[in-house]
């Protein structure tokens, strides 16, 4: 072996050995624990270390960290999905709770519904703001023929997640009008859009916007999709 290469490699290993571990977490450090998946009405949150500082308004698909406090005004509705446990909590205001690792700690009120959803579904829902930003930057969507091609794996997974959500709905605790309703369809739209299956995506997002007219993320996606999609036939 070339001696120069040997010593260069040895020096590189020595330097790497002295580097601190990447992305190391210290005990008690705040981490992303939950995702706002549905919001109607007024709600706000306060960081764990904010003290008496001002609260910030909640937004759809905002990531919440462990220890943050959330407060809902009267008549507000909120869905919070925990990324580790996959549990989605549906809240009706007035209510107040603190974000935990796998679920909320209640200060005022309790969730009206809890239901577990597949992790693959939640992972894709977290990309909804990126899809909305992508739509806003587009001027048009080109529909391509997919006859004879197998359905993309991501779309197959989204359909499977729909069936899983239906199967677990019967065992969900609480009422049936919580934030879980519509999330499997939103997940399917995102999968169809990313797979460029625009014809079916069009029908899914239009139907969803009619069901969730108060949800800013859904109506925003529907509006931007309608702006760029060219309907050329049935």
H/E element order: HEEEEEEEEEEHHHEHHH
Mean pLDDT over the full residue set: 80
Class inferred from helices and paired strands: alpha+beta
* Count of beta strands: 11
Count the DSSP helices: 7
* Low-confidence spans: 1-29
CATH class of the largest domain: Mainly Alpha
Q: Which CATH architecture of the largest domain is right?
A: Alpha Horseshoe
CATH topology of the largest domain: Serine Threonine Protein Phosphatase 5, Tetratricopeptide repeat
Biggest sheet strand line-up: 4-1-6-7-10-11
Beta content:
15-25%
Description:
There is one protein chain. The protein is α+β, with helices and mostly antiparallel strands and 234 residues long. The protein has two domains: 32-116, no CATH class; 119-228, Alpha Horseshoe (Serine Threonine Protein Phosphatase 5, Tetratricopeptide repeat), CATH 1.25.40. Helix content is 38%, strand content 21%. A six-stranded antiparallel beta sheet has the order 4-1-6-7-10-11, covered by helices on one side. The chain has a five-stranded antiparallel beta sheet with strand order 3-2-5-8-9, with no helix packed on it. The chain is globular, with a radius of gyration of 22 Å. The termini are far apart.
